[in-house]
Write a structure and sequence with these properties.
Elements lengths: L10 H33 L6 H31 L18 H27 L6 H23 L5 H26 L3
Helix pairs in contact: 1-4, 1-5, 2-3, 2-4, 3-4, 3-5, 4-5
């Protein structure tokens, strides 16, 4: 589903949709991270030893990397079923049949690398109940990826369809980087 030259996109409306999605994602992320911090430690004991915290971050990252696997499988199946795409990436750009799957895979891979980096950094800096932030961020990542894919398939011409999923995926990761950098810079 590549963009058709005759398909008009109103950039101003797209920017407004992105801003609205960003605000909604910010509110949802803040609420979710807060609820996760106060409720998850009631049900789960989070590790305190560094090696166990790192293991927790790596194991949590598995659920993020599963979304990359989903993207790889979507592209692989799409290529196998499309004469125009069976030659792979070296044979040319993706056809409309797999364009959204390829874009989903690429964006998910980018987001996953950033998220896993944030989780590992946070695991070296946070301990105990604070690790619930990683668990909650993983859930937000999954919801964000699902909404991104659904939105992209619904409206592939502009950013509005994928904006909520994109921002819901990115904002918890961004918050993780900000928190990690603050904890590194500000002495305790």
């Amino acid at each position: 589903m590549t963009r058709q030259p005759e398909a008009p996109v109103n950039l101003h409306q797209e920017e407004l949709a992105i801003r609205r999605a960003g605000v909604l994602s910010l509110i949802l992320s803040a609420l979710s991270l807060g609820v996760g911090y106060f409720t998850l430690p009631v049900w789960f004991e989070f590790p305190t030893a560094l090696v166990n915290r790192l293991a927790f971050a790596i194991q949590s990252s598995l659920f993020v990397l599963l979304w990359v696997l989903v993207g790889v499988m979507m592209v692989s199946v799409g290529r196998r079923k499309s004469l125009a795409d069976v030659g792979g990436a070296a044979a040319g750009p993706p056809s409309e049949k797999i364009a959204v799957s390829v874009a989903f895979l690429q964006n998910t891979l980018e987001q996953a690398v950033l998220a896993v980096g944030a989780y590992l950094a946070l695991a070296t800096l946070l301990s105990g109940p604070w690790l619930s932030l990683i668990a909650t961020a993983v859930v937000l990542f999954a919801v964000g990826r699902l909404l991104f894919l659904i939105g992209y398939r619904r409206d592939y011409r502009g950013a509005r369809g994928r904006a909520l999923g994109m921002t819901l995926t990115l904002l918890p990761t961004l918050a993780g980087y900000v928190l990690a950098i603050a904890l590194i810079i500000i002495p305790s």
